[in-house]
Amino acid sequence: MENDLHGEALIERVIAKVSADGWETADMPDLDGEPVPLPAETIAALRLPDGRPLPPSLRRWLAFDSSLPVGLGWYPEARTPDLAGGALSETVDELYGFDTGEAVWSAMFAEFEPLLPGRCLPLVGGCDSRRLLYLGEPDSTGEYPVLVTDIDDLPYVAVMYPGLDVYLADEAGVLDLDFDTYTGLMDHPVYGARMREHAERTRLGTEGLEIQDLYAQDAEAEGA
Length: 224
Fold this sequence. Notes:
This protein has helices at 7-21, 40-45, 56-64, 67-71, 88-96, 103-110, 164-172, 192-202, 211-223; strands spanning 119-122, 129-135, 146-150, 156-161, 209-210. By secondary structure, it is of the alpha+beta class. It starts with 6 loop residues before the first helix and ends with a helix.
């Protein structure tokens, strides 16, 4: 049923797959040893940086294992979660390993922050591209978008997954998703509607934005 393909129900499938076979992709940190579940009261009290509750996918995952976010670089200790996150430019610095000699990239991604003022949490995947969980506005299922950044030519940002649920399911091999482009799920029969919600709410559009597109948007706003 389609309801099994979103949120907590989809994470249940991910948990079953990872518990039996591990992650499908080599990018994901291994689950070393036994999972480290968070107590229900800790999860209930945990909030996103702006005080909103956690998305259903993350609540369910933390009830299974809190060591994965540590492996992803969200916080240092599995049993003491801290979802403060960082600004887009800060998270990009972390993901690409930029140092002060490459500060130009950080400054260029900071140009997107008026459009994307929410906090970000790093994920894995990509080479010139990276993925991050963007804690802006949730979609109709309560999930937050996974964005992709790219530095192959000019700085680029787009919605790649409609939520942590679909991202983890893809990394686990639970879903067979076809990405001709970063935004290939926009017309997906199950996930397209959620993707388009995030495309509108982030104002990244259905194809994402390069940095020069931001300047064009600003020019249009000034001329309006």
